[in-house]
Design a protein that fits this description.
alpha+beta, 4 helices, globular
């Protein structure tokens, strides 16, 4: 997850093939695919972070609280250290609308809603504003649905790689 003012307006675009993504996203996607087996998606309990130790700084988990108002639907459960470093704050335990501006939170919620309803991975890429002491110019993100019951998405496993 990125702070909205860091993304160059209009640069974000959806990627429709995992083959077009960076190796880190492909690795997490392959794990998600393997963990789900014959189910539409795996559960959080299937995911053990020790399986992808090198990806942990870039990983985040977002609780999906169905039935809540939009401002309280997506809560950050875990935010990797690279995410914290880039955003300058640890958002763990916060709803997105509490930590980013309204427009950015609404856009994430729209993408989150697409992941929840489609029950499929979402990949995107875009440009970042150059920031002093931050060697990043672009990002790629993958959002992967998780479900305790195999039907309803109750969590999103994500990874954002900045480069």
């Amino acid at each position: 997850m990125l702070v909205e003012h860091a993304v160059v307006p209009g640069s974000a675009k959806r990627l429709f093939s995992i083959d077009a993504c960076r190796p880190e996203l492909q690795q997490l996607h392959a794990l998600w695919h393997r963990l789900r087996g014959s189910r539409p998606m795996p559960a959080r309990r299937d995911f053990d972070p020790i399986q992808v130790p090198k990806l942990l700084p870039d990983i985040f988990l977002v609780d999906v609280l169905a039935g809540n108002p939009p401002e309280q639907k997506y809560r950050v459960r875990l935010q990797g250290t690279a995410q914290v470093d880039y955003s300058g704050a640890d958002w763990t335990g916060s709803f997105l609308h509490q930590v980013v501006d309204q427009a950015a939170a609404d856009r994430f919620c729209a993408v989150g809603d697409a992941v929840v309803s489609g029950r499929e991975p979402w990949m995107s890429t875009g440009e970042l504003y150059w920031l002093p002491n931050k060697p990043f110019y672009r990002f790629e993100t993958i959002l992967l649905p998780l479900s305790d019951d195999g039907r309803a998405v109750n969590m999103i496993l994500g990874l954002t790689r900045m480069f």
